[in-house]
């Protein structure tokens, strides 16, 4: 019997939205600004696997715990660059995030940069992370007069500054600016452009319609490349060897003719990749955590009591960050409800059948819809409820593996996971210890999408304790 593939088979077994139009596909009710939340809504009625056809492009979304467990099997599946990510190659080329599995620069850069993500490397970033958190509190101290602070915007300042300084010893002077650094504006423009135009551009008419936006995007890309070249130039200008950071690892390998050395263009791709991947998602994670803390006074009180007990009034040492176990659970739970990189692609590397029901040929791919996976029935009767105790060790042990994937899976999972967690817990602890935070009681959570997720328009009022 031949193996029918997801691509070719009669797709009746995989549900799709009701009103499918010829040529256009499942576009009724689509919102191009919030495709992820749109898909989550559709999944609520169609279940843990469904497809959407957008202008002839077929997407299969999977979120069932059993399916994702299988999709995590690296002997049958690997990363797939879904169209929204593939279009980011304009920005990141064959950098770590956007490299195809077969591209040699992926393994070279992965080997070269892995030492920058070990525990001892984290220890070396700790001081800088504290310094940047200190700049945030200096900035916020000037705003304790009742003026609301824009949380996502300030968290973005903080995380961009942290990755700039730890990774490249480069400061964006984020807290000295009244407006976001132009790098952030250009990056947000490029990410939004990629999200909004990926599908439209698959038709000739669509390509015509996006011409003006494409020109604007080209200017954004040019500007981003200029900033990155400036970061590299600044380092080269400062002498032969620089501090032991990501950039130095790459430049040294080139100088010493290391077998894993990467060329100039790929170094640029890696720098832009880390500047983007290294701050946008962590900023969202911090913003969601602060949102939930402001909405749950009992959680906030418990988290703060922990910080007071573990840190006291002292500057926390490296080891004292991981001791904030409850704060970590708040972060984990926020990333459960709103994983800020909300989907990843997996493709079959052998002919196979998903959960014994859906045949897939080599190259067939699906998107894992992470927020839906994180609301699978394995998470209990009320998966929408915010409950940090979901991450108590005994509760984690009671759930099957592979039901929590905010950092992706397998070989291509997030290299920056420990970095993000250390930074986020350190910053949450710093904020909780210093301020009473009050959210606007009328604020309704609204989520902006630009490949990553971010609460939009969420503000806090601060009072020094
Ligand atoms: C809360 C924060 C973060 C989240 C939720 C997150 C999430 C993810 C996810 C889901 C992937 C896999 C994507 C895929 O399979 O297509 C990924 C990959 C990646 N992340 Fe993160 N990330 C975070 C923070 C960071 C940080 C701080 C850095 C760098 C310092 C970073 C650098 C990367 C890179 C380079 C990759 C590509 C890895 C590879 O394919 O080899 N991320 N991240």
UniProtKB/TrEMBL annotation:
PROSITE patterns from the UniProt entry: CYTOCHROME_P450 (PS00086)
A molecular function (GO) term: oxidoreductase activity, acting on paired donors, with incorporation or reduction of molecular oxygen
Record's signal peptide: none
Family matches, as Gene3D superfamilies: Cytochrome P450
Positions contributing to heme binding: 414
Family annotation (InterPro entries): Cyt_P450, Cyt_P450_CS, Cyt_P450_E_grp-I, Cyt_P450_sf, Cytochrome_P450_Monoox
Sorted UniProt keywords: FAD, Flavoprotein, FMN, Heme, Iron, Metal-binding, Monooxygenase, NADP, Oxidoreductase, Transport
Cofactor(s) it depends on: FAD; FMN; heme
Family recorded in the similarity comment: Belongs to the cytochrome P450 family.
Name this polypeptide is given: Cytochrome P450
Native source organism of the sequence: Rhodococcus oxybenzonivorans
Taxonomic lineage from the root: Bacteria, Bacillati, Actinomycetota, Actinomycetes, Mycobacteriales
